[in-house]
Specification:
- The chain starts with a helix and ends in a 13-residue tail after the last strand.
- It has a single domain, classed as Nuclear Transport Factor 2, Chain: A (Roll).
- An 8-stranded antiparallel beta sheet has the order 1-2-3-4-5-6-7-8, covered by helices on one side.
- The protein is built from 3 helices and 8 strands.
- It is an alpha+beta fold.
């Protein structure tokens, strides 16, 4: 029993040590000001920091969003959950032609600079899940890493 308690305590401490969560008060004002001006109606805001990148998860109009900022307060990349019906027709056509055995599990719109991408997680019974990134024209883009 002693070993179980000790192991539980150690695991709890290690999980807390791995967390990158930070309180809003520790986010530089330049980043907070940019975020608040871009997403003034954001709710349920949670910040994380890894290296020199600040990531914020939040809700806007009942939709999950995530954004990353550099230390200068510049938005690097942004994503939000979307419904499959919001996908461009070109992507819907690729899915129906090439992924008939799969069901779309998650769909997100991703903006990086001036480019817009769509990342999808596809599931199929008995097959490995697929995480794919498409450009608006329906072409799979393997040079863009799927953002978890």
């Amino acid at each position: 029993m002693k070993n179980f308690v000790l192991l539980s305590c150690l695991l709890s401490i290690s999980f807390m040590a791995c967390s990158n969560d930070i309180p809003t008060k520790d986010v530089p004002s330049v980043i907070l000001n940019t975020f608040k001006s871009q997403f003034p109606k954001a709710l349920d805001i949670e910040w994380e920091k890894e290296n020199n990148i600040y990531e914020v998860e939040f809700e806007l109009e009942n939709t999950d969003h995530t954004a990353r900022y550099n230390t200068d307060g510049k938005l690097i990349i942004f994503k939000k959950d979307i419904h499959t019906s919001e996908l461009p027709q070109a992507i819907k056509s690729v899915l129906s032609a090439n992924f008939k055995d799969y069901v779309v599990d998650e769909t997100e719109l991703v903006k990086k600079g001036n480019a817009t991408y769509y990342q999808l997680e596809l599931e199929s019974r008995g097959k490995r899940d697929k995480k794919l990134v498409f450009s608006e024209d329906g072409k799979e883009n393997r040079s863009i890493k799927y953002w978890k």
